[in-house]
Fold this sequence. Notes:
Keywords: Membrane, Transmembrane, Transmembrane helix. By secondary structure, this protein is α+β, with helices and mostly antiparallel strands.
Amino acid sequence: MNTHDTTPNSPQRTDRWGRLRRLLREENGSATVELVIAAPLVMLMVTLAFQIAVWAHATHIARAAATTGLAAARVVDATASHGEAAAQRVLDQLGAGPLRASRVALTRGQREVVVRVSGTATNILPGLRLPVRAEAAGPVQRLTASPGTQP
Length: 151
């Protein structure tokens, strides 16, 4: 007689399926498995949220520097170096933490000033490099004579 009978209705085959069903129904240790899977995902999501907040803050600092540089460079007797210095002062005061490798590029023409600030946000997640760019543009202030008066 064969002791390992595996016909569809054999008692051993039914017993194996019954054991498997019991194992699948039991919930012993399921919380541990769920925690092992969920905890790293939750930590990654929280870290990603912090990374996005740092990037947004660095972008705000770059915009503030570009706007300050524009305000300084568009004045009547100002030069491009005045605007670059003003933008760099803002970056030195505010950008030391969240904004890395910042650069200021200023172009001052006869009629318009354009200030571009770029850099990278401080990375919290290794390998993630988020660029930061801001631009401010405006007309150069000019003195004009009032209608009917001599300049």
